[in-house]
């Protein structure tokens, strides 16, 4: 009985016809249509092949069973078809695995040497560029902008856009992926030190510039949107994305917070440590770190009018500061030519490095690689936070003659580093420094206009209050302790800190002298002289007399003879 195929039935083909619903082996192997290397396919083919399952289908000749020998030819046809089907499946699986390994570009890897004599920091960008793909090789370039130098470089959170600002008033926004110029303009009040610092706000459509008088906010077209007159003479700015707070610190030593969603001033605090131009945020807890001229680092929160932590890190002015993404380590550099790594869990120095030149910029990548920009050289240190390294991972010399590094920044989610210097800007590739997988809800570099609007609304709904910024963000939402017990505990700690520690008494007096202790130890030791002495005393107590000299030791006899002669 035959059924209609459209109704889900199956029509059996006539003798000599091929069934179109079955997958026949037409002699075309999957190995002929793959782009993978043959040795890579053979590796997966040998790994997945099971000889036991294939050998079990062979029918052996049995002399005692004539019916089996009669049906031998029919059995061999079925076994051959089964073997052909299994072989094709194994080849298809090996090809798929090999192609997946080739197309898997999300894995992270550093440059590894073949022997101990090779050094990775000796590699030049020209050598690395020859082994890169076309898209990544385009990221190695240099811009000659001597007219408006020195330059600062800032990347957006997604790493798609970068902001180039020249000290004399040149501003440019570029697409870091396609290298297209989005916005470019010159400030009308341009001049020396007209732009000190810059930062993107919640996305690439708005950015803030710290100019000579105050802080200005511009949109993606270059139009001025806001003028924050309260931020007077700022030297550095930064933006807290989860709180929508714009922070600035200036020559007068005032730290100011402004909510960019409402335009209200959240707080302003006097550092009382003079002019400050070094400011970085800890992305783990949103605490702002300031580097001062006396070598101290202070950590601030808008919920406190005094610094949460004050650390003496260097014996001179602090020139650069950086924090890792986990919030466990902080790296500082000063005029004493020391680069120190600090553990923020214990606020103690882990180790330090020495630099022959003054360090102008520091940055830590998403993979924990430390970048140190000093004079005309930028060095990259792998695993330099947890352990002290003897040599850098990579080193780059700025090609422009006499150029000095102004700042260095890692591009998020890419193995690209931007360097702003006295002659312009350079972009280089350092393998293994970027995070390969990104969260599209956190930072999507391929978002369109609608997705950008949705993410902006979602971030506004999820905005955190400024009072929630503290050293340990895990304490937010915890059960508060009893106020009276907490006050009493703080008073006891303060009392213990004010009291002078008591001096421990020396116990080596009287019976505790060393000679007394040794005498007590030897008291129970019985030797020949001690036995004679005990016998002599016993005879004296009993009054029996006797020859006492026989019981005397040689030393006692000598002492007695001396007394008699005297």
Key words describing this protein structure:
566 residues, alpha+beta, four-stranded antiparallel sheet, 28 strands, disordered N terminus
Task: Please describe what this structure looks like.
It is built from eleven helices and 28 strands. The chain is 22% helix and 28% strand. The protein is α+β, with helices and mostly antiparallel strands and 566 residues long. It has a four-stranded antiparallel sheet. It has a four-stranded antiparallel sheet with strand order 2-3-4-5, with no helix packed on it. It has a four-stranded antiparallel sheet with strand order 6-7-8-9, with no helix packed on it.
> Span from first to last CA?
147 Å
Helix content: 10-25%
Shape: extended
Q: What does the average pLDDT come to?
A: 81
Structural class: alpha+beta
Give the DSSP E fraction (strand runs of 2 or more residues): 25-35%
Major sheet: order of its strands? Answer: 1-28-27-26
The largest sheet, given as strand count, sense and whether it forms a barrel, is:
4 strands, antiparallel
Query: What count of helical segments does DSSP give?
Result: 11
Unreliably modeled segments? 1-11, 18-33, 50-62
Number of strands: 28
Provide a compact summary of the structure:
The chain is of the alpha+beta class.
Outline the secondary-structure elements.
Layout: H1 38-48, H2 51-55, H3 66-70, H4 72-103, H5 125-129, H6 134-137, E1 141-144, E2 151-155, E3 161-166, E4 170-175, E5 181-186, E6 195-200, E7 206-211, E8 215-219, E9 224-228, E10 234-240, E11 245-250, E12 254-259, E13 265-270, E14 278-282, E15 287-291, E16 296-300, E17 309-312, E18 318-323, E19 329-334, E20 338-343, E21 348-354, E22 359-364, E23 370-374, E24 377-381, E25 394-397, E26 405-410, E27 416-421, E28 424-429, H7 449-461, H8 483-498, H9 514-521, H10 528-542, H11 554-565
Antiparallel strand pairs: 1-28, 2-3, 3-4, 4-5, 6-7, 7-8, 8-9, 10-11, 11-12, 12-13, 14-15, 15-16, 16-17, 18-19, 19-20, 20-21, 22-23, 23-24, 24-25, 26-27, 27-28
Helix pairs in contact: 1-4
């Amino acid at each position: 009985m035959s059924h209609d195929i459209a109704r889900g039935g199956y029509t059996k083909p006539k003798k000599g016809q091929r069934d179109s619903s079955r997958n026949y082996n037409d002699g075309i192997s999957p190995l002929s249509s793959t782009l993978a290397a043959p040795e890579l396919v053979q590796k997966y083919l040998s790994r997945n092949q099971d000889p036991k399952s294939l050998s079990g289908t062979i029918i052996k000749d049995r002399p005692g069973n004539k019916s089996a020998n009669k049906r031998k030819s029919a059995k061999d046809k079925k076994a051959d078809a089964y073997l052909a089907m299994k072989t094709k499946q194994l080849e298809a699986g090996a090809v798929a695995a090999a192609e997946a390994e080739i197309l898997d570009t999300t894995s992270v890897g550093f440059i590894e040497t073949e022997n101990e004599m090779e050094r990775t920091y000796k590699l030049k960008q020209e050598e690395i560029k020859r082994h890169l793909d076309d898209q990544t090789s385009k990221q190695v370039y240099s811009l000659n902008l001597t007219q408006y130098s020195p330059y600062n470089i800032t990347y957006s959170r997604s790493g798609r856009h970068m902001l180039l600002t020249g000290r004399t008033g040149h501003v440019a926004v570029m697409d870091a992926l396609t290298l297209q110029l989005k916005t470019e303009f010159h400030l009308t009040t341009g001049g020396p030190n007209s732009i000190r610092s810059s930062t993107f706000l919640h996305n690439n459509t708005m950015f803030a510039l710290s100019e000579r008088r105050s802080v200005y906010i511009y949109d993606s077209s270059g139009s001025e949107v806001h003028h924050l007159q309260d931020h007077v003479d700022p030297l550095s700015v930064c933006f807290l994305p989860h709180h929508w707070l714009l922070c600035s610190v200036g020559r007068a030593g005032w730290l100011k917070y402004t909510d960019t969603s409402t335009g209200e001033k959240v707080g302003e605090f006097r550092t009382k440590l003079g002019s400050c131009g070094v400011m970085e945020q800890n992305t783990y807890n949103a605490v702002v770190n300031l580097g001062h001229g006396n070598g101290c680092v202070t950590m601030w929160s808008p919920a406190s009018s005094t610094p949460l932590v004050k650390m003496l890190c260097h014996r001179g002015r602090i020139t650069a500061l950086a924090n890792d993404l986990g919030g466990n380590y902080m790296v500082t550099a000063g005029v004493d030519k020391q680069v120190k790594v600090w553990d923020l869990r214990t606020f103690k120095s882990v180790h330090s490095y020495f630099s022959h030149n003054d360090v102008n910029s520091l940055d830590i990548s998403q993979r924990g690689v430390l970048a140190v920009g000093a004079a005309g050289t930028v060095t990259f240190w792998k695993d330099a936070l947890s352990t002290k390294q003897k040599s850098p991972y990579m080193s780059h010399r700025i090609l422009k003659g006499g150029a000095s590094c102004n700042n260095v920044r890692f591009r998020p989610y890419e193995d690209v580093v931007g360097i702003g210097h006295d002659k312009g800007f350079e972009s280089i590739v350092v393998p293994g420094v970027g995070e390969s997988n990104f969260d599209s809800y956190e930072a999507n570099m391929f978002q369109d206009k609608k997705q950008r609007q949705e993410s902006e609304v979602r971030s506004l709904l999820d905005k955190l209050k400024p009072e929630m910024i503290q050293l340990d963000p895990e304490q937010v939402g915890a059960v508060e302790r009893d106020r009276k017990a907490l006050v009493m505990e703080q008073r006891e700690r303060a009392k213990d800190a004010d009291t002078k520690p008591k001096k421990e008494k020396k116990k080596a007096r009287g019976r505790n002298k060393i000679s007394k202790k040794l005498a007590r130890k030897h008291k129970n030791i019985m030797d020949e002289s001690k036995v004679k002495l005990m016998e002599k005393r016993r005879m004296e107590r009993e009054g029996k007399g006797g020859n006492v000299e026989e019981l005397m030791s040689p030393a006692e006899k000598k002492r007695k003879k001396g007394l008699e002669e005297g």
